Amino acid sequence: MTQVQLRQVRKQFGRFTAIENIDLDIRSGELVALLGPSGCGKTTTLRMIAGLESPTTGGIFFDDQDVSEVAVQDRNVGMVFQRYALFPHMTVEKNIAFGLSVRGTPKSEIKTRLDEIIDVVQLGEFRHRFPAQLSGGQMQRVAIARTLITKPTVLMMDEPLANLDTKLRGEMRRFIRTLQQRLGITTIFVTHDQVEAMELADRVAVIFGGHLAQFDAPEALYRHPASVDVADFMGASNIVPATLSGDDTIITSFGTLKVNRQEGMSSGAKVYAMLRNEGIDIHAAEGEAAPHLIDGRIVARDFFGASVNYVVECGDTRIIVTEQSRRLLDVGMDVRLDIAAERIWLMTG
Ligand SMILES: Nc1ncnc2c1ncn2[C@@H]1O[C@H](COP(=O)(O)OP(=O)(O)OP(=O)(O)O)[C@@H](O)[C@H]1O
Ligand SMILES: [Mg+2]
After folding, report:
1. What DSSP assignment string belongs to 195-223?
2. Do 199 and 246 fall within a single domain?
3. What is the dihedral of CA 190, 320, 170, 221, to 10 degrees?
4. Exposed site from 8, 85, 335, 345, fewest CB < 10 Å?
5. What's the pLDDT tens digit per position in 104-139?
6. Among 179, 207, 232, where does a domain finish?
7. Are 163 and 87 in contact (CB under 8 A)?
8. Which atom of ligand 1 has the smallest separation from the CA of 210?
9. Residue nearest atom 19 of ligand 1, based on CA coordinates
């Protein structure tokens, strides 16, 4: 198990800065996802950790040892790519053992490790097949096994599930998670899918335009995003401008809401409030309007089976409310929204 650290790593390609002074501290045995939109620098970061690219400034450390000058083949990292070209004329076994064969590993050791790894990735019944006779998920497992058999201290995966269909992606995610936990191998997983990152990772590093925007556990990222950009990328649907009044009330264009006190924000501050759509109670509007309840009207409804989304117009703002579909409210209905203070998160920008 290896701890991986990036200290003030910057990468420049000519005059273009792809990565700006990133600090990242990956614990040994941890699974970290690098998450961000296309072109934000995920692959570049991974390539620097692997040694395929060197940082312009800053250092990369494995267990506190500076590896910046250590060549790829001596870093003992394993890489799994999106396009994991298997050798079509070799069987599953031969494909997996290839890395060891070219290194001249003794046949008996290859056999032992092959049996071990084939068991780990559950490819026993396919070991004599050729790639063309495998499904996408099975091929992906061969690609992972091919990397794992070399016993890397750090495993890196660059969008390895991108060309699998949705159902298979889900299965492969669970497979990778279980495998990683069983082997306890420090793993860095690149993806631009926030659901994939949250499902897989112990912690997620969100990268925008070469900057590390936030590095946190999935739940913290989801509930307490550091900025509107992170909230938006993590799929928050209701982000509204507001003004803080006192330390436990916000004033929005559609009403006032109670909030929990947050560090570093003072009365009168202009903020953005994230209202998690699954944290809002929706009721038919009856009786007197109460303070801190928001009046609105359902203008659209999207039924997803287990859950249902209501689009509720509150003054000039549309708020999305997600509920379980045990009951259904109708479009056109006047409703009242109850948004508990602990479901509201404030950001300054
Ligand atoms: N060798 C290179 N020379 C010049 N620019 C490069 C080079 N490699 C990457 N870049 C640029 O650096 C930026 C980051 O690229 P990178 O491949 O790391 O993005 P990414 O986050 O992996 O994107 P994607 O999700 O599309 O794979 C991009 O703007 C890219 O064009
Ligand atoms: Mg990439």
Report:
1. HHHHHH-SEEEEEETTEEEEEE-HHHHHH
2. no
3. 40
4. 85
5. 899 999 999 999 889 888 899 999 999 999 988 889
6. 232
7. no
8. 14
9. 39
